[in-house]
Amino acid sequence: MSSPAPARPRPVHQAADLLAAYLPGSFYYSSARGSLLADGVYSPVHAAPGRRAHAAAEVLDAALVAGVTEPVVAGAIGFRPDAPSSLVVPAVVRRAGPPGAGRPVAPLGGGSWSVSPRPAPEVYTTAVERALDEIRDGDLRKIVLARCLDVTGGDPIAVPRLLARLVHADPAAHAFAVDVSAPGDPAPRTLIGASPELLVSRRGRIVTANPLAGSRPRVADDAENARRISELLASEKDLAEHAHVAAQVAGVLGRFCVDLDVPAEPEVIGTPTMWHLSTRISGRLADAGDAGSSALALAEALHPTPAVCGVPTGLARDTIAALEPEDRGYYAGLVGWTDQDGDGEWVVTIRCAEVRDRTVRLFAGAGVVAGSDPAAELAETGAKFGTMLRALGLEGVA
């Protein structure tokens, strides 16, 4: 009687090695949960919005049958329902632990830089004023308005170095780099960023979300930071804005979960550039056995949250389309991965940019509610550009 074949040991990788191995075109994702680097394409995942999780499950099943080792579906989905998706099942996936603090990464080159705001600051504040009129006169209660910065260097942007600088600056962030090139693009496009906002994570039957809304810029002075944190926790405007987001996320997860834990009050979490009101929501899935409750399915159900869109969702999204001159594309969408068991992690694509050749298009938005000040919202977007600008070595240009 023959003995069973011994199990092949799973390769052991180091987080720093995966980051060093990243090349444009790869999929990279890291967080406190671990690091993932994927290369090649076994199959794209094509499906209409709301059906992507079921299509992903079918492709993952086919990949297992074909012998792909521990397949995942990975990629990004854009903001609007008709926005593009870059979801694929990669041919090769390597995993490691979470990134740690590494050695400083050399600044990017690029020679002289030019910076073009889109739209102009005064156009953005006018859009905020129009949004406030809509809130005062109609059914809109909150809207998130975004703007862009186009930063162009003299040389092509070194995407691997930019990613390494983002990870080094904040190893606890959800860092990502994903190819989002589309047919007809004159050069490859990479969506890259370091998001502080966990849309949803699933491990077995345990589900976690961490919505953020309500912000203050972080500064170098500890006493001033303490004052800003206290101000944020006492701000009626910011607390109301945050409550919209937390309530919507809890309402959606409540359709899937039992034993849902929603803290009564938010706390404040920090990134290297910002302070945010944060509510960490967790629950246990009522049914974890089908594609309809996978991490990707939960992410689709949650998207878009009021943190990047508004309340009510449909009206806010239509108003965004009317007031924002630039298409968001993948900004304020979602990026992440799901495995064959339905586990995975998806984050909101904020603190991000699209890189194409010599140009980096940065995105940032601010939540507008009754009582918002247009100049303050403009300043908030400027502060949120800081994550990417610091990685580019261009602090202070926004």
What does this molecule look like?
The chain has 398 residues and is of the alpha+beta class. The chain has one domain: Anthranilate synthase, CATH 3.60.120. It has helices spanning 15-21, 52-66, 121-137, 159-169, 222-234, 236-253, 295-302, 313-323, 374-384, 386-392, and strands at 27-31, 34-39, 43-44, 72-77, 88-89, 92-96, 114-118, 142-152, 174-179, 189-195, 198-203, 206-209, 212-217, 257-261, 267-270, 274-278, 281-285, 310-311, 334-339, 344-348, 352-356, 359-369. The strands form 4 sheets. Strands 1, 2, 6, 7, 8, 9, 10, 18, 21 and 22 form a 10-stranded antiparallel sheet that branches. Strands 4-19-20-11-12-17-14 form a 7-stranded antiparallel sheet, with helices on one face. Residues 1-5 have low confidence and may be disordered.
Task: Give a quick summary of the entry.
The protein has 398 residues and is α+β, with helices and mostly antiparallel strands.
